[in-house]
Amino acid sequence: MSGGISRRTFNRGLAWTAGAVGLGAAKSATVGAQDLGDFGSIDPSSPLLFASPRLEPFVDELPLLPVITGSELELRAASTVHRFHRDLDPSPTLAYGGMDYLGPTIEAHSGDPLTVAYRNEIGVHPLAGDFDTSLHGVTEQDRTAVPTSMHLHGAVTPPEHDGHPAFLQRPGQGHVHRYPNVHEATQFWYHDHAMGITRLNVYAGLAGLYLLRDEFDTGTAANPWGLPSGEFEVSLVLQEKRFTANGHQSIRATPLVPQGRWDAGTPGDVGVVNGKIWPDLEVARGMYRLRVLNAASFSVWNLFFGNGMRFWILGMESGMLPAPVPATRVRLAPGERVDLLVDFGALEPGSTVELRNDEPPPLGALQRGAGAMPLFCRFRAAGGRGVSGTVPEILRGGRGRPADLAPIATPQVQRTVSVMQLPDPSTGGVLMSLNNLLFGDTDIEMPRQGTVEQWNIVNITPEPHPIHLHLVNFRILGRQTIDVPSYTRRHPPPPVGTRWAPPVDEFVTSPVVPPEPWEAGPKDTVVTNPGTVTRIVVVFPTADQLGFDPDATFAAGAAAPSPPALPPPLQGYVWHCHMLDHEDHDMMLGYRVVAE
């Protein structure tokens, strides 16, 4: 579906942005040196935005992420220091597993359980001044005794090992996570999920990849498809950031929002890949497999190669597609992953090609002066030839390949849920919401185990929102535009805290637009575009199918917030927007998969 913006949507966005800017302006009527912090200047062409220092691209080599394996692993989160660019001073960061930024790639095998002994050893948080104690569960204590909760995104895990946002560990505390790995080969990722500060912990560096292998996708030269492996399989963790004049990473985008107050989100102005700004990778002239993750806090990207060359999409976050999809672009939202087969064989020795983005930011960021963050990294062709081969014709079905995708199941239940941007009654500002509720509200979805449900996700906002469901995968039926003004006039939203998700079918204004070809397989995150209803089908598994009770209760964790945002004990999972700025306030709700 096109990412274009209609006049009606634009006008709604103007009203929302005026409120957000008004909040900041009321708190910071003038911009002085104290407001600039370490930035030192504001770009005159974008007077409402801070700007990173001017930096030369392609002067740093792309770091290759280390891989760890084993049935029992230890993973510690710690305060570190990392240099993002040759010409920047080292920046305080967070990291997992002894690295100085991000975490090592965990490689596991389908069907082989994995135990990860996690421990929080964070000393100083590099973004402590950005903690907003008006958000649910966030306290002054959190700045110096930082809570964490490690989540394995996309995996099927028992509730006590899922990284629930209210299941917290402070420094000196930990949790032994047990991952069944009951999934075919795919690419997960792990990241922090602590309530109210997820955006800060992940931005500071708490994220890493998790590759799951099986007998069909071995990650070795014996891979049945003949896919590139070893040095020719490269993981790319994509992010966007802003940096201060002294080289420190900064979550702040505008002086209109004072430090220590939540911001609805603005894109970064530099691209970061595997912890380096606009890095360069020398590639052999041949086939590569690129495992790409959008680990941004905010932006949806339309990714393409600068020379327009074709590539093939093998799969997304939940495994292989039926066959490779030829493409010259792929749209990737925060939390989504894509598995690419790329042929650099046509490049002349010494020639280069860049991985780029041209999707403009959402309306509110556009009105601040933000533009598309255009560049991530460069690939430089070496003189020698690399892996040659052909693109597989099929990836599923037949001997030596995983089974064909099952047809999309017929829904037994229809469920409408809503994605909203609302006035914040506590501050007079803006908050993000699902179903007009706050995270701690108890009016949650409670699908029954063994039931097939169709979720109609209604986005009445002027922004795209990637919606992620923990525990389950789903299939996308398609998207339809809706008449938002008529919908909200007929069904006026009540005060915040009362569920609002009225039926939407009467207000659709287009046929169902099918998912993009690369969205045809199972997924755990889906982009809901502005002014649309996105329809997905979810099969909620039973306890017998899972091998554990998905509705079991568990303790609130060693560092439960005070006052609690949810009453102990905890139960179930969460679904939320994966724009981390949004999930922190308050576009996240719990849900339970209940027994008959």
Explained architecture:
The chain is mainly β. It folds into 3 domains: 67-217, Immunoglobulin-like, CATH 2.60.40; 238-385, Cupredoxins -  blue copper proteins (Immunoglobulin-like, Sandwich); 413-591, Immunoglobulin-like (Sandwich). It has 7 helices and 33 strands. The protein has helices spanning 7-27, 33-36, 198-204, 363-368, 484-490, 543-546, 580-583, and strands at 67-68, 72-82, 91-96, 105-109, 114-121, 150-153, 174-179, 186-192, 207-213, 233-243, 249-250, 270-273, 276-277, 280-285, 287-294, 301-305, 311-316, 319-327, 330-332, 337-343, 352-357, 375-385, 413-423, 430-434, 452-459, 465-469, 474-481, 525-528, 532-539, 553-554, 570-571, 573-577, 588-591. The strands form 7 sheets. Strands 10, 11, 12, 13, 15, 17, 18 and 20 form an 8-stranded mixed beta sheet that branches. A 5-stranded mixed beta sheet has the order 1-4-9-8-6, with helices on one face. The longest helix is centred in the N-terminal third of the chain and has 21 residues, at 7-27. It starts with 6 loop residues before the first helix and ends in a 5-residue tail after the last strand.
Shape: globular
The secondary structure category is mainly beta
Low-confidence stretches: 1-35
Helix content: under 10%
Task: Report the oligomer.
Answer: single chain
**Ends distance:** 38 Å
CATH fold annotation of the largest domain: Immunoglobulin-like
User: How many individual domains?
Assistant: 3
User: What would you give as the CATH superfamily of the largest domain?
Assistant: Cupredoxins -  blue copper proteins
**How large is the radius of gyration?**
23 Å
CATH class of the largest domain, named Mainly Beta
Can you give the mean pLDDT? 91
* CATH architecture descriptor text of the largest domain: Sandwich
**Main sheet specs:** 8 strands, mixed
* Secondary structure tally, helices: 7
Instruction: Give the strand content.
Output: 25-35%
* Total number of beta strands: 33
